[in-house]
Amino acid sequence: MEKEVFLEDQQSIIFKEALDHSPEGAYWFNEDGKFVYVNKAICTMSGYTPEEFENMYLSDLDTSIPKVELPYLMNKIFTTDDWSAETIYQRKNGTSYPIEVLGNGFIYNGKKVICAFARDITQRTIFREKYLDTTRELKKSLKEKEVLIKEIHHRVKNNMQIISALLDMQSRRSDDTVLKNALQESRSRIHTMALVHELLYLGDNLAYIDLPTYINKLVYDIKESCTSNSNPVNFKIDIEPVSFSSNKCIQVGMIIHELAVNAFKYAFTSKDNNIFLMKLSVVEEEYCDFIELYIKDNGDGFSPVKKPMENNSIGMTLVHSIVEDQLDGSITYSTGADGVEYKIIFPYLESIHD
Predict the structure, then answer these.
(1) Which residues does 159 contact at the CB level (< 8 Å), separation at least 6?
(2) 39-42: which pairs have CB atoms within 8 A and are 24 or more residues apart?
């Protein structure tokens, strides 16, 4: 076989010597897919001797290729730059093993020759199967955890609704107006938190919530519970498309809830032209981006309080506590004949303790 292929010149002898001692299987075919040269490595891999290869075709090793298709395959390898494939070879003893084959075609001694290198990829295949099995198991486990987390959010929301219903029952049994109002405010705050868990349960992302969706739903619910047809409010909401974690959504939601409810309760005494404006945007700075929340109403205003703790309002105390202690932000507000406006600024990125 070798005498038919290699010319007896010094360059060919060196080339043949290199192929013979290559750790990877090396073999040449003619245009019909018949072996015209094999090195020691491919003989060791397959179990055939060089003499046996003299009468063999590629289809004897790769039984998935019919012999009649070998000329087509040889032509494809010959005309394709850096041809490669993974396949299964059959050993002489009947066992099989995975192979990665690299092939190129060239003209040698006036004839088309296909040169191929084969590498046993048994270990790679075993590793790949283990990797795929592990990946499938992880995906299955992740899916199970997602279902479990969704169920937890669903149950939290349901439990909050039960608590809200209990407060409502207590409110209807009481004749104390102050108590009834306090219970109603507590129910409204519970709903603000429950809405976050509802969106997490219904959404595709278990870690973050689309803020515009949450705020618009929250404001709509507040509007439904706090306004009436006799005292309508025109809402102007502009929320930049950002996503927050459930914890930060609850914090921002509670701020909006308290300021919105406060406006509906005390600011809007007119029967028309009531406006509630809210805008949330990202402010880009050199070292840190910030969220700016701007809320304004055109109500009657109020007497400014220097320190929130001097006010007996639970709502304003809660707002300052969330902004300053939890969001590491700041709040400023002003009041006048044209209503009250609040500007709240806090870091966009969430800290570790969030």
Answers:
(1) none
(2) 42/118
Both 69 and 11 in a single domain? yes
Q: What is the pLDDT of residue 304?
A: 54
280 in any annotated domain: yes
Give the pLDDT of residue 3: 44
125 within domain boundaries? no
**Same domain for 283 and 231:** yes
Tell me the CA distances in angstroms from 349 to 213, 245, 250, 258, one per residue in order: 20, 10, 16, 23
Query: Which stretch of DSSP H or E encloses residue 107?
Result: strand 96-108
| Residue-number span of the structural domain to which 141 is assigned | 130-205
Both tokens assigned to 222 = 């507040």
Domain count, the chain: 3
CATH code at position 304: 3.30.565.10
Confidence of residue 308 (pLDDT cuts 50, 70, 90): very low
* 309 has a pLDDT exceeding 50: no
Neighbours of 130 (CB within 10 A): 10
The DSSP call for residue 12 is: H
Sorting pLDDT into bands at 50, 70 and 90, what band is 306? very low
Angle at alpha carbon of residue 216, lines to 148 and 147, rounded to 5° = 10
Confidence of residue 351 (pLDDT cuts 50, 70, 90): very low
Note whether 299 and 339 are same-domain residues. yes
* pLDDT at residue number 270: 67
The enclosing H or E element of 184 equals helix 177-202
